[in-house]
DNA sequence: TCAAGAAATGCAAATATATAAATATATTGT
DNA sequence: ACAATATATTTATATATTTGCATTTCTTGA
């Protein structure tokens, strides 16, 4: 495998997505959202036990990097996984870290 | 799912492993090492086209975080994936970023 | 023991990230 | 329009990461 300029764009994208996920709170968020679960910012910030603004920031990062989608419903905004394959990635991470 | 203190340790570990992987050059390194491939530092730094010391640094991070193992053979040091499940993770990342 | 090749380390500068407090925006019900 | 609730944004500070140069360590062959 050779690193062409085209491929370096792909690598950049993959790295950005992984960087978005690679944070304890954000992994926890993804684990909450496995399957088709949709949760609001408040539900997530209460479960995590961190500031609302910090939670919103984390969710913004995950959305910006294509990991999550959001959907407004009145005062609430629900967040959920963008692709089903991301559930698989979360599982995979779990496996990789358990088999240490 | 609730975040207990025990679980927060697991999250920390998972995040550290992902953080180690979440870099364009390091993803490229992992893609080189899929399967049972073993490569030396020089081979990797030449393929990546970056400094030897930078390459060594990246490899050190991956080794430190439990992603790679190394094996000395004379002047050379070969690096390879620590667990087979990491090949799966690399594939998974590829899938997640292609289906965008 | 010495020279050469291979890899690792220390260092410094630039850049990026995380966090929370304060503030702003959006939406609903009255 | 106003109060209340839910989210998002701004800002500042602290901390971490990336990179290459220079240097050092480790190993082999002469």
TrEMBL record, chains A, B:
Database matches in PANTHER family: TRANSCRIPTIONAL REGULATOR, ARSR FAMILY, TRANSCRIPTIONAL REPRESSOR SDPR
Q: Which PROSITE patterns does the entry mention?
A: HTH_ARSR_2
Per the database record, which ranges form the HTH arsR-type domain? 6-100
Protein name (record): DNA-binding transcriptional ArsR family regulator
User: What SMART domains would the database entry show?
Assistant: HTH_ARSR
Keywords per UniProt: DNA-binding, Transcription, Transcription regulation
* Keyword Transcription annotated: yes
Q: Name one GO molecular function term.
A: DNA-binding transcription factor activity
Please give the CDD domains that the UniProt record associates with this protein: HTH_ARSR
InterPro entries named among the record's database cross-references: ArsR-like_HTH, HTH_ArsR_DNA-bd_dom, HTH_MetalResp_TranReg, WH-like_DNA-bd_sf, WH_DNA-bd_sf
